[in-house]
């Protein structure tokens, strides 16, 4: 222990540091022993006293801070390490505390100094002489005064401004915090890791014209004339990332229920817009208390509407911050948006239990916060609003993205170790939110919903105010499963930890193949991942059959062990299953995996759909198409006949749930068949399927419309117009003319269609005459670029399929003489690339435009990025022509010494043609087969002779003209080959 002596006051000399502070330069780090980016466990914060003073009302962004931390030495050490980042004017005082009389301050500790590690953002307090200074069992009070600077981005303590309404028109400033995940160190020196929970006593000094709120209710207000100090009650133990406060002139509305006061804070003129949200949050807190059997632990919960420019919401304990448009919304303006806002609000409220009451010990377990909050926000919204089909919306908005995440994002397991600040930020991703939510949903159903919730209850009660790893959650659920008599004869009942670990530590998604042996009535189960041969899972399976078509019981009936193949008898599974019966696995798609069936079983399912589709649950009708998606996208199925047999029943499908999945499959076929001989037949067939549903949806009285209707309308409208359904073309054409030339407002005049207005505009633009298209271009040029109307027109004009109009649109994007007067260069290149990727029919036109104008386009530093992106869509047969254009562009860039954001990809790069390679394989493999099936289906009198005749061009062996060859002709023409 250090000998008590004089206090050392260290004054600042370096920006962001203090006088006497030793700084470890980055280039010298290799000369020192490697220091972990994690805090050592030698010391622990017992409590914080934080005092922040601001003059935000004067537009001053610097703030003064005083952080007093009572620390316990848990292992003898010669340093006390805390986080601090971008804090200046640091002064440190250290006092020894008397363990017998903790309320009394001990003597000052001298002979200390501190260093700062900018790489780890550590502030390190240590003796001047290198010997053991702080003994285990001792307690100290570390007091640090400092200053910091507020920014405009939501990191640490930040500021924003808004204009008051007339007559004052005064600019008002607001200060708010964002501490998650690693930004508390920008507000105060602290142990900025979630495992270091502590109590916080917060004081804020601010203008007397403003109000301060924090995690806890106000304890005391002391007026100092123009300034006021607001002191808050001490928080329960919580992690630094939950420290929060807001200083503003906001007004609020409140309601107290069950002893919890909830308030909606917003600008004074907006407070009445929060009444809908207030009603929702009061109901939600009560519903979550009842559902989990654990009370909300604080006396109040504030919800603050901020004019955020980044992020949407933050779940600070007792003080949730939202972007204002997600909190201050009116019911019925847009039913889908209103429901999404409720789910978002309920997500943040769910965090008051998952993340706040019980916190992860490290960011490896972000999914335990975000996955649980995501899933149960839907569950609780569904309980409160059963009429809105909320769990179907979960499948569409969350599960659908989770199923396809590996196509668009870096793949990693749910539990994944990270260390640097940037790595930590990256795990707040689709895996932690959506994939984890789907895995949690699977086990919520597999272990019986009530049993799973009993496990959650045990988890929350056992670890309240503590930090946890995933094993703590798994053990809690394990106990609940063992206590459930329904599982007593199950061999896996002691393996819950292993079962769940197989999912949280795997990167990929399993595909389960169900292969029936119709002679001996056995079923072979095979599991695999498209991307990995080594990963295997414990997979919960349940079954429905022709003789037992009950889809309501979604608990596990059989756990497939983590092996590649496992064969079981029908008797072992306790199934009633005859030879021609159908078998469906994964009832209501509660399990998070794809299911593939043998062809005979798929035909049996198709027969059932065509005779009485309602026997099979709507979620399983939808999953038939979603489960086939990996095979369709990778061309791994042997025959498309059975898929088209599954399509046949759709003209009688009156439930909207399957259509959301069918739409993706139809779009895939539409994009790949465009320009082929089979395409006109395909459109005719899809028109037959979609017409009844289109007419029902778009001629329905709007009072009958429910949220799921609004969501699926986008899919139905897109499908119907893609295949040239006359009613759809007329409908969208009319609405585009009304929107553009009669100034209708979708949000007020067509509120039920507002959520799909972008699809309406896109499809409607395709039907415009030359004169109407030109009028739309003229209107775009004179429209304020900061308006939604401007964005809508830019977005929708790229949908034209007319070669000349597309050139006209592209010329407008880049401006006269490439001046980029309508949009800046980056925006212009973005919309050009977006038009190329989203409009298959106009890709050849855009290639032609680029070839004609590459010298002018190449002067933009963003052009090469555009060119590299669209090079991924070059067909194999057009590689020589692409190579010529590539060579010309490369030579021009070199000759003119033009810079770009990224280098031009090599002409032989694997990226070239990457996005169209599967399409080429698809056409080679299935085009003739699809054409033959469509001819037979649409022309009952047709025969193989009819089929052959349709291909008789010239010598009779020519392949149907496809989009790829059509594009090639234009590219050849453009390049002059």
From TrEMBL:
Keyword Metal-binding among record annotations: yes
Residues of the signal peptide: 1-20
Enzyme class: hydrolase
Residue(s) at site: Transition state stabilizer: 433
Cofactor entry: Zn(2+)
Residues forming the catalytic site: 348
Gene Ontology process terms (BP): proteolysis
Gene Ontology MF term list: aminopeptidase activity; metallopeptidase activity; zinc ion binding
Source superkingdom: Eukaryota
Record note on cofactor: Binds 1 zinc ion per subunit.
GO cellular component: cytoplasm; extracellular space; plasma membrane; side of membrane
Binding site for Zn(2+): 347, 351, 370
Domain called Peptidase M1 membrane alanine aminopeptidase: residue spans: 278-481
PANTHER family: AMINOPEPTIDASE, PROTEASE M1 ZINC METALLOPROTEASE
Name of the molecule in the record: Aminopeptidase
Organism: Drosophila mojavensis (Fruit fly)
